[in-house]
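Weekly puzzle thread! Below is a chain. First person to post its structure in token form gets bragging rights.
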Amino acid sequence: NLLKTCITLFYEADDLLKRSERDQYGLRRRILFVMNRNELAEKLARLADQKAKLAAIQMSLFLKKSTLQDAMLKQIVAFTEVLQISRNKDK
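Winning reply:
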């Protein structure tokens, strides 16, 4: 009877150790999952920040381009007006 109890205790202890190792592995996996999720969240936040900065730069470039185009159009209109005035004087 004592031998049977010792064998049962041995198997129960072995089972507990195996379960403990599995739990530790599962816990490690959960910790890594949470860490990876946090890293991913940080990367997404950085990416969103970079995207916002890029959009601001693109808008700035667009506005500068529009301003430059407006200035060029004003010069072209002024030049054509001068040409028109000089042609009218020649007639």
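Puzzle host: Confirmed. Bonus trivia for everyone else. Helices lie at 2-90.
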